[in-house]
Design the sequence.
């Protein structure tokens, strides 16, 4: 019996306990410190690992290409240029000038518009599903920007190299691009439903209808170049067009691809989902502020993407003048195709939804199948055509 | 029952032959006015529909002659006969009533709605007497009556603060 | 469609806040893509013009009238002045008659140029919205040169007109009209010759002439059915110059569906109307005599009118536009003024024409009828 307090017997020795208290607290602190040290070392290890990976030359160059050129930064700058270009062309067709005040020829107008729109109040309607309303537009923009990774801008300085190289193009990248693009009208339908107004719901249904009408001719038209090149990889299709551009053999497919892609984007004359005078702004009606900006960019990014696809599939991509770097060839052709795209879209009245479906199913599908079948027979019975077409 | 009516006076004479209590008054040109009693309005309008094959219901409106007396004017125009027929109906009372002719000439349906909400004239058997032009606050107030004043006597209804006279600027008479 | 399909119907307000509904609304009942019921709704534009006219004197009243529809401002103010002249029994000098008529036709051309732009723009081609409106700017320049104001010209007054034609105005009018005439083939190509336009406008919004007469439609909406009903010829106003020259009422005769018209016919009808108006102006300009433009005693007579009722009618750009005035003895203001606008009947006919059409045809239908809520609500 250690220590008694005034004659009473104690089971528990207070002073021993008090003496050991500090050791106990000290032990706990040491335990926390060990966890923190472990965490810190773990984080530093991860950063170390990433750094080692990134410093391998191929990986570093891939990151550089994916983010700077021809990756994200290049795309955003190209998008800004595209929107300015489109607005100027539309203006000239409509007998006016377009943006002229900000910057020479109105170049900074888009920055001003973006800043203004980001500062606007975001009004979420009562019946809208708020969290989906916030997430879906940005998701749409991301899905539209991802296929740009697979577009072969240049034979060497490209995000994806030739198939088989390190970071090579997927052997089915064309299919992947179409898979991502098919998701876009689904998102339009979702946004139309989620923003909670009858007009946007009607717009969403019309967007789904547009997809139902237009995706099939588009995919059939792209089967032509894939068949000629013998591969489904975008890079291989472009690399196979060294001797002859496929538009010479597949002119009808080029035309049907263009019409079907206009319908897929949902711009005039197939812009029934966003018909200005009927359903106010279709599935985009209730979006405001930053979400509207994102959707606005996504529409133009989609148009850019389809023009780039047309250049890769039909116009030879980076093949062209031999003394120019591949990417300059691509951009020149892309500007021409985009100009034609914009002028064609501004010249027709808006078709009604059922007329769009009639046009796509009754005219575009037979024409695209016709051209594919003709080329099939040509490849089978004209033996001198095959090496010309598959290329080197 | 003619297909190409001759002139306004012919039609007027035909109507008066059938309903002798109607008075007529020729206006200048090929136009005639018929003063129709209230109960005969449907018969006269139906007869006009028969006599004139392409009658256009041009207009129908009310006039407020004070002391609870109203007049309803119907105007019909015919292109083939180049004639204009004007019908005048005298009404009396706080809320006078008359039968609707909207089923004979559908174009008068909205004219009757408008007259009802602006003057308070009731139309029996009208398919749809909702107010056409007026906002909810003015329903039942019959704005085009002369008793509906638009001067400061109704300032309280607007809910605006009363105007306070401003002090005259110094050194000048207001 | 079976009756219980209405259970799946959805009511949508083609409301006042809509890109193509400029100040009116319609409650549409939709089943799928088809409109089953259309209930046009008014009152958003009601400015109680008729009550205001009871407090304005006879020279001020026409200013209210011209603001009801700005596109055809002169055609809107003229019936009031015609009614005042009928009650006061005023004579108008011949120079003023011809000037009034020229101005009316010029205003009519301007109204149709506006309509082309609006109709084509509503159907989706923004370029065709702006091209006719460029020509409209030249017409508005000419109006401004003459009267100082672009739209609300307030050109006529009881007894004559206010401003004389100056050489500058005549040259500006010549520029505007020759530009209009030269661009007509281009618009014909862009509208009637465009295959997508034909897809949108043919077979849309059909009605027969008999139905249209019962609803009260007039003007180009009826002439497109083949009936040459035009107040300028049927009931020529003695204070205008339509009976001084030889001209024909523009009508469309369609062999495919005689007695009926659809949106495409109404487009052609308005092309013909512009041609007729250009023709009338061309024939009237050489006939312009020298002389006074207003009778000086007329101003005094228009201050206080005797008791009477006057009915002024004019063939406006959209149909029969009339003003019925009643005055009491020695009155300075009218006792009752009733304005009849042509679009009152156009909106009513929507109730009958639209059911059965697809939703996307709704702007095409009401665009082709050329309605303006000002004439409905006043």
Sequence:
């Amino acid at each position: 019996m250690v220590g008694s307090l005034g004659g009473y017997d104690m089971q528990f020795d207070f002073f021993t306990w008090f003496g050991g208290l500090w050791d106990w607290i000290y032990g706990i602190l040491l335990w926390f410190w060990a966890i923190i040290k472990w965490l810190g070392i773990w984080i530093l290890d991860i950063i170390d690992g990433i750094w080692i990976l990134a410093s391998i030359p191929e990986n570093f160059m891939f990151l550089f290409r994916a983010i700077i050129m021809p990756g994200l930064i290049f795309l955003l700058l190209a998008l800004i240029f595209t929107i300015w270009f489109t607005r100027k062309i539309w203006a000239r067709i409509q007998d006016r000038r377009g943006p002229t005040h900000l910057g020479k020829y109105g170049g900074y107008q888009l920055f001003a518009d973006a800043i203004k729109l980001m500062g606007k109040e975001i009004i979420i309607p009562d019946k809208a599903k708020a969290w989906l309303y916030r997430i879906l537009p940005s998701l749409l923009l991301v899905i539209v920007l991802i296929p740009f990774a697979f577009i072969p801008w240049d034979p060497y300085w490209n995000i994806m190299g030739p198939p088989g190289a390190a970071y090579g193009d997927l052997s089915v990248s064309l299919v992947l691009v179409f898979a991502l693009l098919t998701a876009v009208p689904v998102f339009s339908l979702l946004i139309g439903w989620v923003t909670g107004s009858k007009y946007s719901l009607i717009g969403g249904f019309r967007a789904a209808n547009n997809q139902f009408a237009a995706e099939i001719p588009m995919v059939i038209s792209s089967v032509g170049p894939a068949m000629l090149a013998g591969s489904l990889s975008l890079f291989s299709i472009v690399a196979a067009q060294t001797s002859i551009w496929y538009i010479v053999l597949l002119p009808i497919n080029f035309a049907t691809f263009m019409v079907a892609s206009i319908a897929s984007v949902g711009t005039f004359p197939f812009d029934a989902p966003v018909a200005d005078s009927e359903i106010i702004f279709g599935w985009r009606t209730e979006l405001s502020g930053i979400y509207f900006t994102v959707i606005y960019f996504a529409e133009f990014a989609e148009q850019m993407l389809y023009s780039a696809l047309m250049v890769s599939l039909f116009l030879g991509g980076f093949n062209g003048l031999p003394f120019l770097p591949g990417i300059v060839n691509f951009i020149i052709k892309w500007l021409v195709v985009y100009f034609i795209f914009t002028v064609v879209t501004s010249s027709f009245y808006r078709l009604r939804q059922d007329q769009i479906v009639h046009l796509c199913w009754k005219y575009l599908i037979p024409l695209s199948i016709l051209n594919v079948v003709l080329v099939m027979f040509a490849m089978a019975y004209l033996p001198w055509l095959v090496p010309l077409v598959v290329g080197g | 029952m003619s297909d190409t009516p001759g002139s306004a006076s012919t039609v007027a004479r035909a109507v008066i032959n059938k309903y002798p209590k109607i008075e007529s008054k020729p206006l200048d040109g090929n136009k005639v006015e018929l003063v129709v009693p209230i109960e005969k309005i449907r018969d006269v309008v139906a007869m006009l529909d028969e006599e004139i094959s392409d009658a256009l219901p041009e207009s129908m409106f009310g006039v407020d002659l004070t002391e609870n007396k109203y007049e309803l004017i119907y105007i019909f125009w015919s292109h083939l006969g180049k004639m204009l027929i004007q019908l005048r109906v005298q009404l009396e009372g706080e809320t006078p009533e008359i039968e609707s002719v909207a089923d004979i000439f559908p174009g008068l349906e909205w004219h009757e709605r408008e007259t009802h909400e602006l003057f308070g004239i009731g139309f029996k058997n009208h398919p749809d007497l909702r107010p056409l032009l007026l906002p909810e606050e003015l329903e039942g107030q019959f704005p085009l009556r002369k008793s509906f004043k638009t001067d400061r006597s109704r300032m309280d209804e607007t809910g605006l603060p009363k105007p306070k006279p401003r002090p005259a600027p110094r050194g000048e008479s207001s | 469609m079976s009756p219980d399909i209405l259970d799946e119907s959805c009511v949508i307000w083609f409301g006042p806040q809509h890109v193509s509904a400029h100040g009116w609304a319609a409650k549409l009942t939709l089943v799928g893509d088809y409109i089953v019921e259309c209930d046009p709704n008014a009152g958003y534009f009601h400015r109680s013009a008729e009550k205001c006219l009871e407090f304005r004197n006879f020279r001020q009243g026409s200013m209210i009238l011209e603001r009801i529809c700005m596109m055809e401002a002169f055609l809107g103010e003229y019936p009031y002045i015609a009614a005042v002249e009928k009650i006061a029994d005023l004579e108008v000098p011949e120079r003023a008659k011809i000037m009034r008529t020229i101005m009316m036709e010029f205003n009519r051309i301007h109204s149709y140029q506006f309509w082309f732009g609006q109709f084509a723009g509503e159907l989706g081609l923004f370029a065709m919205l702006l091209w006719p409106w460029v020509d409209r700017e030249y017409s508005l320049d000419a109006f401004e040169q003459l009267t100082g104001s672009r739209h609300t010209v307030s050109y006529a007054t009881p007894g004559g007109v206010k401003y004389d034609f100056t050489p500058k105005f005549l040259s500006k009018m010549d520029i505007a009209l020759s530009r209009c005439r030269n661009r007509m083939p281009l618009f014909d190509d862009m509208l009637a010759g465009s295959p997508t336009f034909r897809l949108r406008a043919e077979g849309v919004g059909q009605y027969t002439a008999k139905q249209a007469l019962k609803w009260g439609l007039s003007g180009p909406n009826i002439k497109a059915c083949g009936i040459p009903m035009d107040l300028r010829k049927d009931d020529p106003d003695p204070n205008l110059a339509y009976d001084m020259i030889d001209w024909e009422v523009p009508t469309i005769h369609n062999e495919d569906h005689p007695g009926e018209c659809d949106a495409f016919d109404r487009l052609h009808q308005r092309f013909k109307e512009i041609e007729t108006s250009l023709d009338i102006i061309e024939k009237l300009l050489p006939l312009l005599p020298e002389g006074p433009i207003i009778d000086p005693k007329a101003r005094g007579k228009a201050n206080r009118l005797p008791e009477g009722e006057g009915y002024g009618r004019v063939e406006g750009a959209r149909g029969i536009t009339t003003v019925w005035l009643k005055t009491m003895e020695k009155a300075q203001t009218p006792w009752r003024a009733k304005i009849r606008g042509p679009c009152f009947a156009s909106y009513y006919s929507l109730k009958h024409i639209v059911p059965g059409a697809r939703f996307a045809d709704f702007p095409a239908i009401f665009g082709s009828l050329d309605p303006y809520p000002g004439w409905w609500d006043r």
